[in-house]
Every structure is written in C-alpha cells, then in structure tokens.
Write a structure and sequence with these properties.
Layout: H1 2-20, H2 26-34, H3 38-70, H4 72-91, H5 96-109, H6 113-122, H7 129-154, H8 161-180, H9 200-207, H10 213-227, H11 229-242, H12 246-294, H13 301-311, H14 317-326, H15 334-362, H16 375-393
Length: about 400
C-alpha cells in the first residue's frame, strides 16, 4: 500500500498548498484583472477567501457521501482533474468574476480532504488510524510550508505563474492516482447516497444518532477555532509584538510548519504506542493551552523560537481525536464522518479569522484600555479549556 499512501499524502499536501501557493500573487492579480487599488483588492481578497471556505464547509459531507456510495478512487481522481482545470481558469482570468468562480469551484474541490481521510481510514487498522491521520496532518504542515515558498518564488515570473504550477501539480497527482490507487471501499461496505445527509446539516444530524460522538465534534471544532488563530493574526501579532518584517513572519511560519511535519509524521507514532489515543489527545490540548498562555509573556523573537519545540507537540491532539471518532463509526460511514469533520474545519476557518482579527484590532488600536497584541491567543486558550473539559468528561460508547 506504499504508493496509494504516497498519493493520499500528496493529495493532502496539494489541498494545503492550494491557498498558500497563490497567496503571494493574489493582491497583484486582483489589481491587474479588476483595475482596483490595494484597498479594494483587499476586500475582494477577503471575499474570495470566504467563498472558498463556505463551499468547503457546504460540500465536504457531499464529497464524503459520494465516496461512501461510489468509492474513494473515482471521487478523488475527478476532483483532482477539476482542481487542475480550475487553476487554469484562474490563470487565464480576465475579470474578477472569473476569479470568484475559480475560488467557488476551488472550495468544492478542496472538500476532497474528506474522501482522502476516508481512504486512509479504510486501509488502517483500528489501532493505526490515529497515527495515519497524523501522517495526513504532516501533509497539511508540509503544504503549509511549501505553498507560500513556491508561490513567492514563482511570483518573479508573473502573477499567473503560481496558478499554472498548481494546475500542473494537481494534474500530475491525478495521473499518479490513476495508475497506483486501488479502490479501498468494497462494494459490500458501500451505501446509497442520501442527499438529506450529504450536506453539513444533515451530516451533523446523522452524527447525533451515534452515541457520544456529538461532544467529540464540538471538541474538534473548538480546537480548530483555537488553532486557526495562527493564520488569522500571526503576521499582525509578529509586527506588533516583535516588530517583525515579512521575511521573519515567513521564517517563523515555516519553522512552525516543519515542527508539525516532524511531530505528526514521525513522533506521534511512539507517543500513541506509549500512551494511547485518549492520553495523547489530552497531552496535545495541554500543549495548546500552555503555548497560548505563554505568548503574552514573550517579548523577544528568540522566545518564540525557543518555545516552538514545546508548542508543536499540540499537533498530536487532532489526529488522536480523529482516530477515536473513526473507530466509533461503521466502515460505510467513514466518508460521511470525514465530511462532517471537513465542514467543521471549514467553519473554523470562517469563524476564527472574523473573531480573532476583531479581538486583535480592539486590543491594539489607539483607544484600547489595555494594549495586548496577544489577546487572541488568550481567547484561543479559553476555547481549549472548554474543549479539554468536554473531552475529559467524555466516555466512549460500547
């Protein structure tokens, strides 16, 4: 199963790179095709980000449900083909509405994370699921590093070059999957697609019928909201707290992403073997909490990097949670579960930036009663405390 796992890993890397690789050129491209100034370009940039996240939220259960009904292989291959064509459309876009449609479709294709995670669940034993989900987390971290780096390098060749590169990567991965990816879901384990359940609201309603799963979904959402404080305000926090420039912001994010890759790709396996999924999840949440509470006390750049070997261990929490939840649902509902988790992740990418940026703005403007750039991290700490409490009281159903 080595080649299929490589394909799934690369699919998750590409999903993670999808936004990062085009991020460095989006301001220039929006101004170019829309003939607008930087201020208006920022508004359009925010709109494109939100429509991407909303569609990922809405369509993750649909993609997961389709993979439960028709198999993981066709869903993944078709989505990668559409993704490559979508990047080409954006590369040739001559108006803002073409960019809008590109991000609209991109949000749907990014929902393939649910099918990829379901494939990994299919080929994993119950005791291996958490560590294999950790491998998917490592893929996300790798894409988080490579996307902006590659996009920044290609930007020297024009604002459209990263889109051509993204299209080529998606198409190449689709070809790899065509030749090496066997179907993981047997026909006996497939179920008819129910459109009433193939949406986030129907999927969450269905999850309520499974004993003890809803509290775990809430824990997952709270941790996701807390985690997305990083892409939401890290660049602003670095400038306000440490007077960083863009280079230092990128270096710190790359170092953090590399730490996540090492923890989720290598170290999570012996941790799970030694402590099991439940203790590992609690340990990861504790590292989240410790990190968020430490940021207000950091006053020098070296403090951040010195604390990073501790903070990256928070990355073990989500794969352990995914393993626990995956083991609690039937084989023919893995896609539906991963679709629900994909929707929750997308929902967190909508909620967290809206809330965290407002909190940062309030505590850094000239009229604030307390100047505290790290305030969003304290709010994230509160979210983790609630998640920790709910999880510590959770008992798996028989």
């Amino acid at each position: 199963m080595r080649l299929p796992i490589i394909f799934i890993f690369m699919t998750m890397v590409l999903d993670s790179m999808g936004i990062g690789i085009i991020m460095p050129v989006m301001p220039d491209l929006i101004r170019e095709v829309g003939n607008v100034d930087l201020s208006r370009a920022a508004i359009w940039g925010g709109t494109l980000t939100v429509v991407f996240a909303i569609n990922q939220f809405l369509f993750s259960p649909t993609v997961g449900g389709l993979s439960d009904a028709y198999g993981r292989r066709p869903v993944l291959l078709i989505a990668l083909l559409v993704m490559s064509l979508d990047y080409l459309v954006m590369a040739y876009a001559q108006s803002l509405w073409f960019l809008f449609m590109g991000r609209f479709v991109g949000g749907i294709t990014a929902a393939t994370q649910s099918a990829a995670a379901a494939y990994m669940a299919d080929i994993s034993t119950s005791k291996d699921k958490a560590k294999n989900f950790g491998l998917l987390g490592a893929a996300f971290g790798l894409g988080f590093i490579l996307g902006p780096m590659l996009g920044g390098f290609l930007a020297e060749y024009g604002s459209r070059a990263p889109f051509f590169a993204a299209a080529a990567l998606a198409f190449t991965n689709m070809l790899l999957g065509y030749f090496v990816l066997p179907e993981s879901l047997t026909k006996a384990n497939r179920r008819k697609l129910d459109w009433r359940r193939a949406n986030p609201f129907g999927a969450f309603k269905q999850m309520k019928t499974l004993p003890g799963l809803m509290p775990m979904l809430l824990v997952f959402l709270l941790l996701s909201i807390a985690f997305f404080v990083y892409p939401s305000i890290w660049a602003f926090f670095g400038r306000a707290q440490f007077n960083w420039d863009a280079r230092m912001v990128g270096l710190s994010l790359a170092a953090y992403g590399l730490g996540i890759v090492i923890v989720q790709g290598v170290l999570i396996r012996p941790i799970l073997v030694r402590f099991g999924e439940r203790i590992t999840a609690l340990f990861g949440m504790s590292m989240h909490l410790l990190t968020f509470l430490a940021y207000p006390w950091m006053t020098e750049t070296w403090h951040v990097f010195a604390f990073m070997p501790i903070s990256v261990f928070s990355a073990v929490a989500v794969p352990a949670l995914q393993g626990l939840m995956s083991n609690s649902v039937a084989e023919n509902a893995q896609g539906e579960l991963q679709g629900a988790l994909g929707s929750l992740t997308a929902l967190a990418t909508i909620i967290s930036p809206l809330v965290m940026t407002q909190v940062f703005s309030y505590f850094t403007n000239s009229g604030t009663p307390v100047y505290l750039p790290s305030a969003p991290f304290l709010l994230s700490a509160l979210s983790v405390i609630v998640a920790f409490y709910l999880f510590s009281r959770w008992k798996p159903a028989n």
